[in-house]
Amino acid sequence: MTKLIDGKIVAKEILDNLADEVLFLNKKPCLAVIIVGNDSASKIYVNLKKKKALELGFNSIVIELPEKTLEKDLIDKIEELNSDKNVNAILVQMPLPKHINPLKIIETISPQKDVDCFHPYNVGNISIGKKSYVYPCTPKGIIRLLEYYDIKIEGKHAVVIGRSNIVGRPLSQMLINENATVTLCHSKTKNLSEITKTADILISAVGKPNLVTENMVKDGVVIIDVGMNRLENGKLCGDVDFENVKDKASYITPVPGGVGPMTICSLMVNTYDLFKYQNSL
Ligand code: NAP
Known about the structure:
Helix 1 runs parallel beside helix 10 (260-278). This protein is 39% helix and 17% strand. By secondary structure, the chain is of the alpha/beta class. The strands form three sheets. A six-stranded parallel sheet has the order 1-11-8-7-5-6. A three-stranded parallel sheet has the order 3-2-4, with helices on both faces. A hairpin with a 5-residue loop joins strand 9 and strand 10. The structure holds NADP nicotinamide-adenine-dinucleotide phosphate (NAP). The site of NADP nicotinamide-adenine-dinucleotide phosphate (NAP) has 25 residues, from helix 10.
């Protein structure tokens, strides 16, 4: 019998517990978000993050900078936040305008305030299996989902499709750290379906509807669908042909309502973890 992995329930439970802990603090964790330019999707994401932070009782700072902001001025702003003791977590909303080098910006954020976990210090620690200040939000949310549903990772063959720096690569490292045997696939992978058929845990993070079909998976597989695709009819769907694949899976995430809620949940947990670290709690 297939079980649905419900990210909304898991995220709510984690965030309710977090809100209860925050009630008893005499100082509040503070998340600062910088947005440069007028990208409408970015503005929606930033507002969602601010709303969630305030709901939890965090302090929230949103700094809106004009599209033409110079790279140097953005760096100055980040350095100001790095040294501000009242700010625990810093996020620069991506994408940035083309004249700004995102790598330089990411490297400017203090690793101890790097709430997205993009800084090479944190990423490097994860890749050598050393403790990091934080873990990247979507992969962290996926590991939490597997833990919540008591899905064993150790010794399993995990196949990850997609090698982006925000999902596929860090997730592969985190699964290795959990003692899975990991195969990381991408657009140049040959015989994708031969590989996916051997997966005990299959995670797709590509952004292509119906990439994963029924004949690509084995019976009993655990499927985590990270993909978020907007169809012509306006509906959201993942990378997996959910209706036809679900009966072969032991567990599967829906889209929406699977991985998505866990990403913002992890961002809030990261903010709190950085706050605790900085205040030696
Ligand atoms: P990305 O940076 O565009 O990376 C996509 C990856 O998929 C690349 O590694 C690419 O390979 C690979 N790929 C493309 N076509 C492929 C194919 N036919 N077969 C195998 N691999 C293929 O994407 P991303 O930022 O990781 O996001 C991936 C998806 O997850 C998107 O739909 C995004 O909206 C969604 N997402 C959801 C959440 C959430 O919270 N739910 C969070 C982040 C992302 P190459 O490296 O060879 O180009």
